[in-house]
C-alpha cells in the first residue's frame, strides 16, 4: 500500500461511526495528514461496527461478522504487514453448505484465508485507531448535522456540538445515514440526490443466537452456509475453530437466521428465538444435544447486510462539499474486507482533495 507524501495543512475531520471502514480511513489520514485533527463519534460503547466481539465466562466470540477474507491485496497487506500480527489467527477448517432440507455437503472457499484475532474481530478497529492520533468519543450519538460557512458541525443528542469540520465522513448504515442527511441543515442541490441514493440501499436484518456447549462437536467444518437462501437459517459457525476463543473440549455455535426469518421474528421473545435456532442447529448439524445449550446469548442486527451498493454519482457530488460516505454499503459487498478496502479508498480521496 503506497504511502502518501506528508501534508502540513491543518484539517479538521469528523467521522460519524467507528466501524471498520472508519478505522481504515483514519489510519490513512493519520499517515498522510499527520497534522489533521480527526474526531470520531461512535454511538455505542464498542468499535468496529458489526465486526463485534463479546467475552463471557472464559469464551470469546465474534457474533456479527465472522472473519475477514483475503480477497483484497491492500487489506491483506494492512493486516499482515502494517498492523501488529500478534494474535492474528487463520481458521483452517472449511465452510460447507446446506440446502433447504438441511442436508450438509462439502462446500466452498476451502483454500481461502479466514482471519480473526485471538481477542476477536474488534481488534481490527482497535489496532487501526490505536495507530492514529484520532480522538474517539464512544456513546456519543449524533442527532443532527449542519453545514455553514464551508464547514460541518455534528450535534449530539445531549446538545453538544462537534466541529466545525472541514471534512465530514459518514459511516452508519445507509438508513441511518439517510435519516441524518435528510434532516440536515444543509442548503445544497447535492442533498436531494444524495438522500435518494442512500435511501435506496436495501438491507437484510439478521437475528443471531450464540450457543455454548460443554462438549466439542466432531465435524470436519468450521461453518455452514445456506447458499440458496431457502432455509430459515443462513449460517452456523463454530467459534472453537478460532484459536483462543473457546476452552478445549467445548463448543460455541453462532447461528444466524435468514433475512426473512429475522424480519418476521425480530421483536419476538428472545428466549423463544434462541430455542428455535438451537433446534434448527440440532437438525442441520445432526446432533440432538445441540437443542440444550449450557448458556446462550443473542443479538439482533436491524441493518446487518446491504443487499447492494449505493449509486456513486451523488456521493461524488457530495464530496465536493466535504461530505464523504463509507462502509460496506458504499462498497456494495457485505464483507469486512470490503468495508476496510472502502475505508482505505475514502481516506485516500480525502487526502487527494486537500
UniProtKB/TrEMBL annotation:
Domain of life: Archaea
Stored SUPFAM superfamilies: FAD/NAD(P)-binding domain (SSF51905)
Membrane spanning residue stretches: none
Region forming the signal peptide: none
An annotated Gene Ontology molecular function: oxidoreductase activity
Alphabetical list of Pfam families matching this protein: Amino_oxidase, NAD_binding_8
Residues in Amine oxidase domain copies: 113-350
PANTHER family with a match to the protein in the record: FAD/NAD(P)-BINDING OXIDOREDUCTASE FAMILY PROTEIN, FAD_NAD(P)-BINDING OXIDOREDUCTASE FAMILY PROTEIN
Protein name per UniProt: Amine oxidase domain-containing protein
Species name: Halovenus aranensis
Amino acid at each position: 500500500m503506497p504511502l502518501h507524501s506528508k501534508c502540513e495543512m491543518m484539517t479538521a475531520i469528523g467521522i460519524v461511526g467507528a466501524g471498520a471502514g472508519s478505522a481504515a480511513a483514519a489510519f490513512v489520514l493519520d499517515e498522510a495528514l499527520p497534522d489533521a485533527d480527526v474526531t470520531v463519534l461512535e454511538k455505542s460503547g464498542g468499535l468496529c461496527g458489526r465486526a463485534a466481539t463479546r467475552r463471557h465466562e472464559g469464551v470469546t466470540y465474534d457474533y456479527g461478522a465472522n472473519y475477514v477474507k483475503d480477497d483484497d491485496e491492500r487489506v491483506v497487506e494492512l493486516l499482515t504487514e502494517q498492523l501488529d500480527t500478534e494474535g492474528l489467527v487463520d481458521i483452517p477448517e472449511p465452510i460447507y453448505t446446506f440446502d433447504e432440507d438441511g442436508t450438509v455437503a462439502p462446500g466452498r472457499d476451502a483454500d481461502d484465508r479466514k482471519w480473526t484475532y485471538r481477542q476477536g474481530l474488534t481488534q481490527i478497529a482497535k489496532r487501526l485507531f490505536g495507530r492514529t492520533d484520532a480522538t474517539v468519543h464512544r456513546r456519543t450519538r449524533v442527532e443532527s448535522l449542519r453545514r455553514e460557512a464551508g464547514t460541518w458541525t455534528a450535534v449530539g443528542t445531549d446538545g453538544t456540538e462537534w466541529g466545525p469540520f472541514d471534512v465530514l465522513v459518514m459511516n452508519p448504515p445507509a438508513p441511518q445515514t439517510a435519516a441524518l442527511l435528510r434532516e440536515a441543515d444543509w442548503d445544497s442541490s447535492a442533498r436531494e440526490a444524495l438522500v435518494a441514493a442512500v435511501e435506496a440501499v436495501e438491507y437484510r436484518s439478521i437475528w443471531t443466537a450464540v450457543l455454548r456447549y460443554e462438549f466439542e462437536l466432531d465435524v470436519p467444518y468450521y461453518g455452514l452456509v445456506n447458499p440458496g437462501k431457502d432455509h430459515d437459517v443462513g449460517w452456523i459457525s463454530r467459534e472453537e475453530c478460532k484459536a483462543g476463543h473457546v476452552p478445549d473440549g467445548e463448543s460455541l455455535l453462532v447461528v444466524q437466521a435468514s433475512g426473512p426469518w429475522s424480519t418476521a421474528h425480530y421483536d419476538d421473545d428472545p428466549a423463544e428465538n434462541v430455542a428455535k435456532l438451537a433446534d434448527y442447529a440440532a437438525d442441520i448439524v445432526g446432533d440432538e444435544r445441540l437443542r440444550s445449550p449450557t448458556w446462550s446469548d443473542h443479538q439482533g442486527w436491524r441493518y446487518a447486510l446491504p443487499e447492494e451498493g449505493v449509486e456513486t454519482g451523488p456521493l461524488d457530488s457530495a464530496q465536493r462539499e466535504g461530505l464523504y460516505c463509507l462502509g460496506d454499503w458504499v462498497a456494495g459487498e457485505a464483507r469486512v474486507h470490503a468495508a476496510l478496502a472502502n475505508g482505505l479508498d475514502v481516506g485516500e480521496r480525502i487526502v487527494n482533495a486537500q
